[in-house]
Amino acid sequence: MRPFVVVDATPYGREPSGARRRFDELLPRVARLRPDAVFEVHWPRDGATPGPDLVADNVVHVRTDVSCTGGALRWWRRSRALARRHREAPFTHCWVDHGPVVRPDRVRNLVTVHDLRFLHGYGGRLRAWYGRRRYGGLLRRAAAVVAVSDAVGEELRAVYGVRDAVVARNAVGAAFSRDALDRVDDVLRARGVERPYLLVVGRDEPRKAMAAALDAWRRARAEGASYRLVVVGSKALAGDGVVAVPRTTDAELAALYAGASFTLVPSRYEGYSLPVVESLACGTPVIASDIAAHRALLAGGARGLVLVPPPAPAREGHAWPEAAAALRGPRGFDAAPPAATWDDAAAEVARALLRG
Length: 356
Hints:
Elements: E1 4-8, H1 18-33, E2 38-43, E3 59-63, H2 72-85, E4 92-96, E5 108-113, H3 125-133, H4 135-141, E6 144-147, H5 150-160, E7 166-167, H6 184-191, E8 197-201, H7 210-222, E9 228-232, E10 243-245, H8 250-259, E11 262-265, H9 274-281, E12 286-289, H10 292-299, E13 305-308, H11 321-327, H12 342-353
Parallel strand pairs: 1-2, 1-4, 2-3, 4-5, 5-6, 6-7, 8-9, 8-11, 9-10, 11-12, 12-13
């Protein structure tokens, strides 16, 4: 019987995210590596839709009746639907994060862990309870657990005792390279951005501490620096001299990275940090918080990454003086991301997908 893989895309909303970028990069590659399998991709009724690159002879897209914002309700409805589906044929259920893991006696469940933010105070009380009380059991029932970075793999071992996790490292998309330098002037002109500027990219989530980048910029300006601050993705930092750029294409974002003097990444917790590696791939150095995910990038060979202590808590005003001090440091960094590629990650996932 031809292998049958149900790919769960129901958690993805319309907003860009690192998890969706990983999905878009890996699905076509994994499908090419396993031409013997049929991949049936399940999408939410109100969230993300298939991109133009997610087309292949062995990939079928299906719209479900669940909402991408359903949380526990989405999990329950997916569990019921997949439990019924197992009667039709054995299959592999992959790309799930917090579950469900269905019929492990018959279904090969592949769980991808992007981060463990719920153990660090992010994601709400229900998710924190689930992470501490139930998630370990879910991981033990899975046929394979995939970590998106070495930092997540280490945390899985330390917290849940998962010692055989497959580490399929995130990487950098093709749009992010030093070739973006050729587009910088046109993109800056179109977006009304002038050099020199600092860049910060991310969503308004407490763990990303976006306001700390604003603090570092203001401190640098008070000390005589002439930087502007350009913000992509965060509406909360708009105004007060900040240039806010709405949603961009990858090519535009790459040009914004390439034109910046530094990219600031003040996150207090990450499983992996795409802005760090994307900026380095475009040749721009990064000043980032000294957290496990960023240290793992350094250990993996990243160059041009300067780590400083994380910013102060929100109740203390997100102060980040260490980043401002780093802006006064040396220039001329040789910036480059770790050597991981999406092809490498896809090969690891393909091996884990249908083995055994």
